[in-house]
């Protein structure tokens, strides 16, 4: 057998080997691969990073190519990836706390979803039965002060603005519910509403050192006469006094 013929056969064999090897590598390096340090996703032989949509589920691959699980922060937005790596949406419970993830996976914070208030850290803040301030910030009630815009108003006044200040070191949450009381016979007595009010289910976040305001309608009460009054919030632990003349 001459050398030229042998060289020709070897060339064909090597070509077939390379072709088979490339085909095997292409098959191996497309899709999910477990590389002993985690799952990675390959496309055309190259490892992917960032977001990947696989069969309708979104996954996030870190800079090293490994699939992310648990909480991740991408462009200052929080997402939660399940144990399988798939991005979660809707309500998620994590270490006893509830969070809500929008349809695009972003965690919702400082907003109300399905009637539930989500705090600045995204966790559901459980409000007490008065819909006034959250149980989680019960200690902050002692650091909340309230005052009206003026100390005296005319009898024809229709509304009063009350200012709420957080003097504490932690955020406080409060709702729109309030009551009005009048000082009669050396004690405070609740002034009845004309009709039973329907306060909306919402909670506002008042950060430390900040002041917010709420407009109180006096038209919700019947036969207000001259005297000393106060607007009450936070389960009766905060009040702002004023006088009608």
Automatic annotation (TrEMBL):
Coiled coil regions, renumbered to chain: none
PROSITE patterns, A to Z: CW
Keyword terms: Repeat, Signal
Signal sequence, start to end: 1-26
Keyword Transcription found: no
UniProt Cell wall-binding repeat ranges: 48-67, 68-87, 88-107
Pfam families: Big_14 (PF20251), Choline_bind_1 (PF01473), Choline_bind_3 (PF19127)
Every Bacterial Ig-like domain range: 141-235
UniProt-listed InterPro entries: Big_14, Cell_wall/Cho-bd_repeat
Name the record gives this protein: Bacterial Ig-like domain-containing protein
